[in-house]
Every structure is written in structure tokens, then in C-alpha cells.
Design goal:
397 residues, alpha/beta, Aspartate Aminotransferase, domain 1, Aspartate Aminotransferase, domain 2, 2 domains, four-stranded mixed β-sheet, 44% helix, globular, binds 4'-deoxy-4'-aminopyridoxal-5'-phosphate
């Protein structure tokens, strides 16, 4: 038995897929253009990013990044707690707190590190973290790192949440309910008012990871909690800058005392370098634009609605809610990979998703920057290959 046996087994699987369709993961982008991305020397309409507001190549955001590079250099070369804390980080924190309607914010280097740091510092072994079965991996990893008991409830089901909370109501520690605002692989919105009401009844604290809702949903893009009018009832909100905010980094928002505690105890903050000046400045510029151009989120959602109705009309099984994300479901992994290849060859970039991430599907995400032409191109690509992938009998199963 060797440490590397599993690598060999994985390679055999990966080779089978590569021989059938090429490598569906890590496809390299040569450059971005106004129309999308150039890959393998061919232009592709981009339906595989999370650039929801279309700001990742916006001239104002790029200029803010360039200015910060010139002013501060390329790197902070260390943790914020040691030498990497810039006035820029603190300005971003103040503006995020104001935008999301919370007393305080703490900026981390990535969204993943945000969730890891928040959960691992806030929870202890005697606590119980109750997660929606589809929450993001970073939340699960943070919960596990904390040593707390982790239990899950059925996706977006308040009754099942109540059942799980009741089963743990007698335990000595605290209860923390953790959900996503928008589920990345389902494209649906959590029923926050119902979930928060159940959590409150059991005296549980609530954390919402709004990575995919922040900047997009709610008034001026204030996120899923704002959309549902529960921003003050949710104790902690986490966001990432790698999607609507066109950069990389993340933040937790909440009560000043809790945020201060995390500032000094979250290990993913203390033991990792600060987000770069350029990334921080780009996120700040994108946040300011998001506030003043709320039509961007609305356009992304409207584009996804249009895409979904076109795909459903062709017989594809489409899932998603009033968000920029839609997923097209397939029978098995191989069908997903084949469909990914066929659609890519027709000029459209999508994301193949297979277990254990989620059941087999292609994930498509829309942005405010998409044009009528982009949507038509995507729909044409799916229509061209529909005969091979739409199975009318699926509906009967
Ligand atoms: N939470 C959710 C729901 C996400 O989808 C992601 C990224 N896919 C993250 C957190 C992590 O964010 P980042 O990529 O900025 O580290």
C-alpha cells in the first residue's frame, strides 16, 4: 500500500474521460475579449464564470487595481495582523458594513478563508453546527476544523431544520445554523424568513454565506438577506469578492464584538498573507459601482431567466431560481462531459459538474455584460446538440 495508490486509480478514471472528451477541468483561457474568452484559439461565449455584474474587465475596476499596484506594489508580503494591513482594507470594511447594514466587517484574503476562519474561530467542540445539506465546502471545512458536532438538514426545508435543532436542543453548547443565500450548484434562493424563524425559536445563531447573492439580489444588490428583509435577524453574513465584486477576497459582517474577536482569533486570517493591494482596490471599486448601478444584478437575473426558458423549451431539464445561475441536468457523468464538449465545440463555455460536488449537470451563469447575441449563441449551441442529449423519457422517471 502506498500513499500514491489513489493517484493511480484517479488517473485511470481521468484518462478515460480525457480520451472521450478531452479534459473538462482546468481548460486554459488564452485571453478575454469583449465577446467572451479565447480558448484553443477559438472564441467562446462565456457562461462559466461568476462575473455576475460584468465588472471583472470594467475599465473603472481595472484602473483602480492598476492605481493600487502602482501606489502599494504587488504584495503586502504578510498577514494583516503583522504587516499587511492597508488603509484600503479598512476603507473596504467600513463600506461593506454600511452596504450590508451590519455594524462591522472583517476582510479576508479569499471567500474560502473567510468561511474557514469564521466557523473555526466562532465554534467549539461542545457546539452543534447545523448546515443545509448543500452548503459550500468552505463552510463544512470550517465547521469540521472547529471540532464542533456537524449535522445537516434537507435542502431549504424549514421543517427538517426544526427537527434537527430539536434533536440537539438539550446539548450543552450553542447551536449555529449555516445556510447559503444562493446555492451555487442549484441556482436557487434559500427561504431565509422561514429558516431564520425556526432558528430563532430554538435560540440558534444564524450564518448566511451570500457569496452568490451579494451585489446581485435585493435593493441595490445588498444581497439575499436584504431581499428577504432579514438582514438584521441574521447574525453573521459572509461574502466573497470573486464573483459580483470582480476581484478575489472575502469578508464577514456582523456585530462589532464578534468581528473584533474573529480579527484576533481566525487562523485563516492570522496565518495567511493579506489580500493584495490591487485585489482590495478592485473589490472596493466594484462595490461602489454595484451600489450605483443596481440594474446590473437585475440584468444578470433576467438573462438567466431567458436562457432557462429557451433551454426548457428544447426539452432540457433546467433547475434554478431568480438568480443568474441555471443548471442543466443529465443522466450521468459521461453525458455531462459529452454535452460539455459538444457545447464547447459549438462555441459556448459552461462548467461540467459531477459527484461528489453535485449530481451530474452543466452549470451556466449569466452576467450583466451578456448581450442578446451571447444568449442566442448559447441557445443555438444547445439546440444544435439537443437530439443527442435530450431524452424525452427522462420526464417520466
Ligand atoms: N461560498 C460559496 C457559496 C462559494 O460558491 C464559494 C466559491 N465557489 C466560496 C464561498 C469561496 O469563495 P472564493 O472562491 O472567493 O474563495
Amino acid at each position: 500500500m502506498s500513499l500514491f495508490d489513489k493517484c493511480r486509480a484517479f488517473r485511470a478514471y481521468a484518462e478515460t474521460v480525457r480520451q472521450a472528451v478531452g479534459d473538462p477541468f482546468y481548460p486554459p483561457v488564452q485571453r478575454y475579449t469583449a465577446e467572451g474568452a479565447v480558448m484553443g484559439n477559438e472564441p467562446r461565449a462565456m457562461f462559466g464564470g461568476n462575473n455576475y455584474l460584468g465588472l471583472a474587465r470594467d475599465a473603472r475596476v481595472v484602473a483602480a487595481g492598476v492605481q493600487a499596484l502602482e501606489r502599494y506594489g504587488t504584495s503586502s508580503t504578510g498577514s494583516r495582523s503583522m504587516n499587511g494591513n492597508l488603509a484600503l482594507h479598512e476603507t473596504l470594511e467600513a463600506e461593506l458594513a454600511d452596504f450590508f447594514g451590519k455594524p462591522a466587517a472583517l476582510v479576508f484574503a479569499t471567500g474560502y478563508q473567510t468561511n474557514l476562519g469564521v466557523l473555526s474561530s466562532m465554534c467549539r467542540a461542545q457546539d452543534t453546527v447545523v448546515v443545509d445539506e448543500y452548503v459550500h465546502a468552505s463552510l463544512l471545512d470550517g465547521a469540521r476544523l472547529s471540532g464542533a458536532r456537524v449535522r445537516s438538514f434537507l435542502h431549504s426545508d424549514p421543517r427538517d431544520l426544526a427537527r434537527v435543532l430539536e434533536a440537539h436542543s438539550d446539548t450543552a453548547g450553542n447551536l449555529l445554523v449555516v445556510v447559503d443565500g444562493v446555492y451555487s450548484m442549484e441556482g436557487d434562493i434559500a427561504p431565509l424568513p422561514e429558516l431564520v424563524a425556526v432558528a430563532r425559536r430554538q435560540g440558534a445563531t444564524v450564518l448566511v454565506d451570500d457569496a452568490h447573492g451579494a451585489g446581485v439580489l435585493g435593493r441595490e444588490g445588498r444581497g439575499t438577506c436584504s431581499l428577504h428583509g432579514v438582514a438584521t435577524d441574521v447574525d453573521l453574513i459572509t461574502v466573497t469578492f470573486s464573483k459580483a465584486f470582480a476581484s478575489v477576497g472575502g469578508a464577514v459582517l456582523g456585530d462589532a464584538e464578534a468581528v473584533d474577536y474573529m480579527r484576533y482569533t481566525a487562523r485563516s486570517q492570522l496565518y495567511s498573507a493579506a489580500s493584495t493591494p490591487a485585489d482590495t482596490a478592485a473589490a472596493l471599486a466594484a462595490l461602489r459601482i454595484a451600489r450605483t448601478e443596481p440594474w446590473r444584478g437585475e440584468h444578470a437575473v433576467a438573462h438567466a431567466r431567458r436562457l432557462a426558458s429557451g433551454l426548457a423549451g428544447m426539452g432540457y431539464r433546467v433547475v434554478g431560481g431568480a438568480t443568474p445561475i441555471r443548471c442543466v441536468r443529465f443522466r450521468d457523468d459521461l453525458q455531462v462531459f459529452k454535452a460539455w464538449r459538444a457545447v464547447m465545440d459549438a462555441g459556448v463555455y459552461t462548467n461540467p459538474v459531477v459527484p461528489p460536488v453535485a449530481s451530474p449537470r452543466l452549470r451556466l451563469s449569466c452576467t450583466a455584460a451578456h448581450t442578446e447575441q451571447d444568449l442566442t449563441r448559447a441557445l443555438d449551441a444547445f439546440e444544435r446538440v439537443a437530439a443527442a442529449f435530450v431524452d424525452p423519457r427522462e420526464d417520466e422517471r
